Amino acid sequence: MQPAIRQTPLASTDQTGTRSQLFLIIAIILVAIDLRPGITAIGPVLPTIIDEFRLSHTVASLMTSIPDLLMGTLALPTPWLVRRFGINPVLQIALGILCIAMIARAFSPNTATLLGSTVGVGAGIAIAGALFGGLIKTRFATRVAFIMGLYTTAISVGSALSAGTTGWLAQTVGLGWRTSTGIWSIFGIVAMVAWWFATRHEQKVVSTAPATSIFAGLPFRNKTAWLIALYFAGVNFLFYSVLTWTAPMYQEIGLSAATAGLVLASFTIAFMFSSPLVGIFSKSTDRRLWLAGAAAVTATGLIGLVAAPDALPFVWLPLCAIGLGAAFTLAMTLPLDNTHTADEANRWNAFNLTVGYLIAATGPLLTGYLRDITGDFAVPFALLVGVALLMLAATPFLKPHTAVTVA
User: Fold this and answer.
1) For residues 106 and 120, what is the distance between their CA atoms, to the nearest angstrom?
2) What would the pLDDT profile of 148-191 be if each residue is shown by its tens digit?
3) Into which CATH architecture does domain 19-200+220-397 fall?
4) Distance CA 225, CA 362 (A)
5) In the chain, pLDDT over 90 holds for what percent of residues?
6) Angular region, 254: left φ>0, alpha ψ -120 to 50, beta rest
7) Smallest Cα–Cα separation from 394: which of 294, 292, 322, 324?
8) Is there a contact between 218 and 345 (Cβ–Cβ < 8 Å)?
């Protein structure tokens, strides 16, 4: 009589794998929530910071432009760091830098320290944010758009919470700008613990391949890669410009910091809800109709904002955010649509982030400069309309050059 075949170990292995993936998704979400409050918490209290440190609008814009700039430049070495040291230690160090820098910024005694700690904020966000393209491609190869939608939604959750409540904490509760911006460093501690828990049984993988230039394998000669990066640049040029200057603009019109923060929160909340929806419904790798629709909705919201900034802010800003939220998820997914392996996805993602954020860094800076020389925000926001229309014009050329099938 032959012994019965036991299938429990197989079932147990399947359950363990499913549980491991669930923990990893939760950790990705918690890390993503931590990746924007270091930037978005500044907007509602920026007028207070300008007054305290006697900054021009151009210098104040560096609070957002510096992180954008670093998100561009540090995306290049991040794939090399992952191959050399493994994703887990690199991510933990990046999250630690972000957490410490946010606390240091809250205690800044002068402008140099304020901007120097902002460099730390940008470095932590930049390195951590550049890690997830290859990770999602490897672990969730058949669901990249859906998981990327969760990731971008979680980023939006962090943005919405910090943008919507920082002004209220600073003004209504009376915590001041320092405590109300530094408090978001708690997210960093939560993210580090969650990532350790989700990956504690994984071994650190270090590449034994010969060291190569950080530029090796980047798709410099691929026209599709450039178009994707430019579309991504447009999305972030608009997002960070609106994020930085909407609350100050409405405070100039006469709203309180708390109310202006609510207007900004309507933007980030709408962005948060639109991000996952496009990930769920955009199934084909040819996403041009979705990309065009996102750009058109963004342009419509910005046109309404320019035409009547003091009328219907809770309509025009959320409309703009719906378009940008969809466009952001799509733009983050496009490098994965055009690649086959995790390493290739990391290289395309690094290229996308580098070109995109280097250009996007000029958005808040240029908007603040135009505000300084014109005296109001009409011309700066008209510029943003033009950028949205350029995004729309680029969409017919964004057909993927591979035949990858990705859900």
Assistant:
1) 13
2) 778 878 888 898 888 888 988 988 888 999 999 999 999 999 99
3) Up-down Bundle (1.20)
4) 21
5) 41
6) left
7) 292
8) no
